[in-house]
Write a structure and sequence with these properties.
Elements lengths: L16 E2 L2 E2 L3 H10 L2 H17 L4 H15 L6 H13 L6 H12 L2 H7 L5 H15 L10
Antiparallel strand pairs: 1-2
């Protein structure tokens, strides 16, 4: 698999779920983002957005976020701005019945703030723009689930 997404095979994706069922499809989509051309990557990002963040966040979201941060920081990835947008969508959505999952997904995104700080200085203007949006979302994040008890 190369140097990026190296630990992906250690995740028990088949035991996790996303918006439409078992998450065993997530590694393939992450791989298509990593190594696909622009169209392939865009389609995979669309799938990931739907599966992991658009409707709610899931246990597979928590597992995928570190890989999304890795993809966002890897210059060879063709749609890094799209990856950053998926990270922002994770932070903006929840799963109130599963507050522990929501908290973990949000914390996984929030933990990448330093990476986002670096991405706002990227050479790619679309990456810089997406990173500014993500940083604004990180800095203004105040959901009830993430607040200390």
């Amino acid at each position: 698999m190369g140097t990026i997404l190296k630990g992906m095979n250690r995740v028990r994706w088949h035991e996790l779920s996303h918006a439409y069922g078992p998450a065993d499809t997530v590694p393939g989509a992450l791989s298509r983002v990593a190594w696909g051309d622009a169209k392939t990557s865009e389609n995979a990002l669309s799938d990931l957005g739907l599966w992991l963040a658009e409707l709610a966040v899931f246990d597979s979201t928590v597992a995928a976020v570190p890989f999304l941060w890795e993809l966002a920081a890897t210059e060879a990835v063709t749609r890094r701005s799209g990856v950053i947008e998926v990270l922002q969508a994770v932070l903006e959505h929840g799963n109130p019945p599963r507050s522990g999952v929501q908290r973990a997904a949000h914390q996984a995104v929030l933990s990448g703030r330093r990476a986002a700080d670096q991405l706002i200085r990227d050479d790619d203007p679309s990456v810089r723009s997406a990173a500014r949006g993500l940083l604004a979302a990180i800095d203004s994040h105040r959901c009830e689930t993430c607040q200390p008890a």
